[in-house]
Amino acid sequence: MTDKVFEKSIKKQFEFDEEVASVFDDMLNRSVPFYKEMQRLTINFALNYLEENDTVYDLGCSTASTLIELAKHSSKKFDLIGIDNSSAMLARAENKCKAFGVDIKLLNEDLHNIDYENAKLVISNYTLQFIRPLQREKLVKKIYENLEENGIFIFSEKVISSDKVLGKQYIDEYYEFKKTQGYSEFEIAQKREALENVLIPYTDEENKKMILDAGFSHCETLFKWVNFATFIAIKK
To answer: Which of 93, 125, 152, 205 has the fewest CB atoms below 10 angstroms from its CB?
Structure first.
């Protein structure tokens, strides 16, 4: 379905409810620049580290697209676990898993309540930004502590610039991108208002500091387009 959520005036903050879930795949592809390329890179780099029967967690898995693509691109069998606190998202994820014949364990849970046992790979695509900073850093620390040796954490985030002029240019460039995807200025403004104080982005430097402070030995940027970035962190 086509994303038309913000064609009407908003009356609440952004949330991953039934209305959003019903158009979420279209929303991602039209709202996140190079989303498919980011997903492709995530999978390709992940497969460099994964062995048969390794455990993979996707935090905020939404409709399970990344885990499904990971399974489709490997002959190895993995223990795939998708976590989301939106029942509407997980209902669509379950239907997609059945359609593609991919076995994924889907959990309707708070990310802080998961133990991440035997994790070799943890994926988090545009999820940490919705978690309050102090809780975000605690979660990343928990992920680090539960990853196996040589385990990896791949995450994508909307980022901001520490320079005010560049930050304004980031926003302008992103707005132009959304217009090319068919969103009106009204829709763009409505979504921005709905996300106010819900999505809290870090700078590139803040994201990397959070990762290193958690104990990871290395963190590098895999991909970046203006204010969207994908990072890889390695536990050694």
So the answer is: 205
110 annotated as belonging to a binding site for a ligand: yes
Residue 156 is labelled as binding a ligand: no
Q: Indicate the burial class of 82 (C-beta count within 10 angstroms; 0-12, 13-18, 19 or more).
A: buried
Instruction: Choose the weakest-confidence range: 37-41, 189-193, 204-208.
Output: 189-193
The pTM of the full predicted model, rounded to 2 decimals, is 0.90
Query: Is 26 labelled as part of a ligand binding site?
Result: no
User: What is the C-alpha to C-alpha distance for residues 82 and 146, in angstroms, rounded to an integer?
Assistant: 16
Q: Taking 80 as the threshold, does the pLDDT of residue 230 lie above it?
A: yes
d(C-alpha 184, C-alpha 226), whole Å: 21
Q: Is 219 annotated as a binding residue?
A: no
CATH of domain 17-160+200-234: 3.40.50.150
Report the C-alpha gap between 66 and 124 in whole angstroms. 10
Answer yes or no: is pLDDT of 10 > 90. no
197 is in an annotated binding site: no
**Is residue 79 marked as binding?**
no
Q: Where are the domains of the chain?
A: 17-160+200-234
